[in-house]
Amino acid sequence: xxxxxxxxxxxxxxxxxxxCRGCFLKEVDSKELGLYLEPVYTDQxxxxxxxxxxxxxxFYIVSLNxxxxxxxxIEDIILCRLWMAIKMVRTWLECLFGIKKAQxxxxxxxxxxxxxxxxxxxxxxxxxxxxKTPKIYDRDVVxxxxxxxxxxxxxxxxxxxxxxxxxxxxxRLDEKLNTINF
Length: 182
Description:
Layout: E1 2-6, E2 12-16, H1 21-27, H2 30-33, E3 41-42, E4 46-50, E5 60-64, H3 76-97, E6 101-107, E7 116-122, H4 124-130, H5 141-146, H6 150-170, H7 173-178
Antiparallel strand pairs: 1-2, 3-4, 4-5, 5-7, 6-7
Helix pairs in contact: 3-6
């Protein structure tokens, strides 16, 4: 069986039913998908890139490169690397863009899961405009994410990605992650 996998720019790829987005993103040449989905960081264990389905600038997905479906299947040392990288992404959002609030979610699906963590920035202009902070338990997080359109935010996504990549290189994230041991 074949399914279509869609992306922010409207492009769709036909993939087999058992292909998850994480594995597809790891295998496909990011130039095929567009600059906005080029990883801002990748090593042998993790990758960090703009969310592939939501045009919210600075919305990063920190994922494992290995296809592991659940937190419980991750080796402790890799889990530490993953959460150190998440912390660095969150730190960058505040330092460079003044993001005072971010929401962090892990996602485990029942079928064909590829473990990843959302780092969802809450931009202050949204809070000012709507007078509220999106919350998952109020179910308005989806409305928040959908309020950002690709054509309106493409350049800002590229700008965030450029700054994120420069920041992660400047702090030598790869070296920091390599110092983790047990």
